[in-house]
Amino acid sequence: MTRSSILAIAAALAAVSTPPAARADEQPGTGVADEANVLFQLGNDAYQRREWRQALAHYFASDRLAPNRNVRHNIARCFEQLQQYVEAYRYYQASLVEGTTQEARAETERALVRIRSHVALLRVVSDPPGATVFVDRKDLGSWGVTPATLALAPGRYRIVLAKAGHHDRIEDEVAVTAGREATLETGLVLAGGWIDVRGEPEGATVRVEDVTGPVVGTVPSRLLVSAGSRHVVVTRDGYLPMERTVRVETDRTVALQVALEVAGGTIVVQSDEREALVLVDGRAVGFTPAVVDGVAAGRHRLEVQGQGFHPFARDVEVRAGERVTVDAVLLPDEDVEAASRQVESWRDAPASVTLIPRAEIQAFGYPHVAEALRGVRGVYLTDDGVYPALGVRGVTPFGPYNNRVLVQLDGHTLNDDWIGASYVQHDLLTDLGMIDRIEVVRGPGSVLHGTGAFFGVVNLVTPSRVPDGRGMA
Question: Has this prediction a pTM greater than 0.90?
């Protein structure tokens, strides 16, 4: 050995000769750190004598007692001197642990570059990751956990991947070349059985074990899972989640029937009209007042229909677990005859029409027609001391005895034949209880009804059918 070689080796050892630290679990007085330090020094002495194998024996024993990156770095140097480049590469890699100084890391990386041409690298990637890697045989010990980069001698190898709950994956004849890096990507098959998921609603997501984990399938689907008791969670927006535990046996199929319940809210429908039909999205769900439970979260079309009323419709936004209250105001959908002398909806009448329905007449107990018309828009009463007259839109001349307003009963004129006077007090009808509604048509109607309809028409309509027990027609 030349003097320059000895000096180089001594300098290299000095750079990594930090003695091993005591293990965290070492008890006071056991002397493990002392023993590891003695073995480390013996390894350094053997290295200086160029007795590489003896140095390895001491370094290995020291590393078993107190694992240390400096010891592994020295092991790599010994293997390099023995031209066992594969082992040297692995231990150089093992010495690059967290906390390595920048200087030590740079020295190790230079060593890896120096022997790279003598080593073949194989990067092993598995799905799922975390598989233990074996080379040629499992009884030779593991080489790491995927994803892992293996340093190998050039040649062909048998790579075995093992992971709990999965079948072993064996890749034969994997070839590697010195100075190059090859990649082996492979998948592991679960050593388990299948869960056959069927039911409603279709498209619901399925998770196994972890309720917040990735989706592994949808309804319907057939899922391959590891054997044992498995917790299955099925979810979908707008539905209550379903959780079940199933027992899965190897190479067998277990059926799981899904029936998710709607995770909706409640619609409360209130209305002044009782027993009006309530529909949600076109489906009858009850009568007013109604409480509709279990409505799926989202936007729905609510309709309320009552005989004799214009349908009420509204879009309602329902949220899961919440209650929505809707006040359905039903407007009377009554017919009018006086506007065009034919039966039509008051909304379609070609005139300004006001209807006084039977319910209002009964509720206020109007003694005669004049009192019933007192609150009608555009109509007012005047009295010349002899007889009250109806004024329409601000006009009511004195003296003509109300002969500019035509009063009818079911379309038949009630004005007298002498001066055309119309009667709106007790001399017309003594009981408004027989009247179903009063139609008030504002504006000239002489073209349809004659000269008496110059200001407007008041048509008294009797019921078209016999009143029921509640007094309603």
Answer: no
